[in-house]
């Protein structure tokens, strides 16, 4: 195999996505490549991936590599981690068989993860899932003890400037299938006009669909400057001790933000924020809700999600996968039915017209003449 292209590199895939162009070669350091990252790479139409980490470690069956495989995007792994320091972003590199060439020199070896190799590694992941599940449950229970304040009212929840009370709230996370789910509920958004909350990159997801977020919530590590500037209100998720690394970025843009110190994930505090401010209904799109989601997110447990959903469950509707509930299709019988229904009143009006009555009389006389009656 011979592949040549312009290199773009970043050890954080979500940062790299913003700079990728079609045909680029993506150099990443992403252990257990997750679905969301893989879908983003496919969307950018990269030529191939070079990963300095294990794309599938076998710890659990992560589905990112299969998505790239289905999109015919080759995945190469190299154990040469120095490659990040050797190549310069924007330069041309070449992969020839199992060699990586840069400026005419070999800088490392690589292996191609083909279908058989991916299936073999995924099989190991499925075999390990029980062990991983036990560890995950233990971590979840441990974190639940620390994070119980999320539902007991011990954590102060900010009052939003945006009026939420009595309204529907749509919370968008840039998770799996978020685009298809947003498309599926677009008519709901246009008709009901819920308060729009984007969780980090979820704010940009709303912009993609032509909506301006009323509120953006998160640690501000995966949201664009454009979205921060357009959002009507910014709430920075801080550590329980009050440290808020994301606040500096907001202030550097000359913007103001509210700090929300809390354990758990940013999507959890988005639900709490909507609930505590009196939302009538909370609709979630793209959120993380199962063990694989959290393993891919790198979260050791999902206690905060369990706790928060217990608290807001009566008002929460999860739109995850709603796009699969119904697929509209063109059916000729519907068109024929509509056409007939439209023709009936036209025919009734036409028959009752004086001119049509005269034409019918002439037709009747002519028919009698032909028949000799």
Automatic annotation (TrEMBL):
Molecular function GO terms recorded: ATP binding; kinase activity; thiamine diphosphokinase activity
A biological-process GO annotation: thiamine diphosphate biosynthetic process
Domain SteA-like C-terminal: 320-370
Thiamin pyrophosphokinase catalytic domain location: 193-234
Spans through the membrane: 334-351
InterPro entries referenced in this protein's UniProt entry, alphabetically: Put_SteA-like, SteA-like_C, TPK_catalytic, TPK_catalytic_sf
Keyword Membrane applies: yes
Keyword field: ATP-binding, Kinase, Membrane, Nucleotide-binding, Transferase, Transmembrane, Transmembrane helix
NCBIfam families found in the cross-reference section: division_SteA (NF040608)
Protein name per the record: Putative membrane-anchored protein
């Amino acid at each position: 195999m011979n592949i040549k292209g312009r290199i773009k590199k970043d050890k954080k895939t979500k940062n790299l996505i913003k700079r990728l162009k079609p045909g680029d070669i993506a150099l990443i350091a992403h252990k257990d490549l997750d679905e969301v990252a893989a879908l983003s790479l496919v969307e950018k139409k990269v030529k191939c991936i070079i990963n300095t980490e294990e794309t599938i470690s076998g710890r659990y069956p992560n589905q990112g590599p299969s998505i790239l495989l289905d999109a015919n995007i080759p995945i190469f792994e190299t154990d040469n981690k120095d490659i990040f320091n050797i190549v310069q972003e924007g330069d041309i590199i070449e992969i020839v068989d199992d060699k990586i060439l840069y400026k005419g020199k070999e800088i490392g070896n690589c292996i191609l993860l083909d279908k058989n190799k991916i299936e073999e590694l995924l099989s190991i992941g499925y075999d390990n899932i029980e062990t991983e599940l036990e560890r995950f449950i233990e971590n979840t229970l441990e974190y639940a003890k620390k994070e119980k304040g999320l539902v007991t009212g011990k954590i102060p929840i900010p009052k939003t400037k945006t009026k939420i009370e009595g309204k529907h709230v749509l919370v968008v996370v840039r998770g799996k299938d978020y685009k298809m789910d947003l498309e599926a509920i677009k008519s709901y958004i246009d008709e009901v006009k819920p308060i729009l909350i984007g969780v980090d990159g979820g704010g940009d997801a709303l912009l993609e669909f032509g909506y301006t977020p009323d509120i953006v919530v998160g640690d501000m590590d995966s949201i664009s400057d454009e979205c921060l500037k357009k959002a009507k209100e910014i709430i920075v998720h801080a550590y329980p001790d009050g440290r808020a690394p994301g606040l500096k970025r907001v202030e550097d843009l000359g913007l103001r933000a509210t700090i929300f110190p809390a354990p758990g994930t940013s999507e959890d505090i988005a639900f709490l924020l909507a609930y505590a401010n009196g939302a009538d209904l909370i609709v979630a799109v793209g959120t993380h809700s199962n063990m694989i989601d959290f393993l891919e997110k790198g979260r050791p447990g999902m206690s905060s999600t369990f706790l928060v959903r217990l608290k807001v469950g009566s008002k929460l509707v999860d739109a995850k996968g709603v796009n699969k509930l119904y697929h509209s299709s063109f059916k000729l019988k519907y068109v024929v039915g509509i056409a007939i229904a439209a023709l009936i009143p036209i025919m009734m009006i036409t028959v009752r017209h004086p001119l049509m009555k005269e034409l019918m009389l002439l037709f009747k006389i002519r028919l009698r003449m032909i028949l000799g009656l």
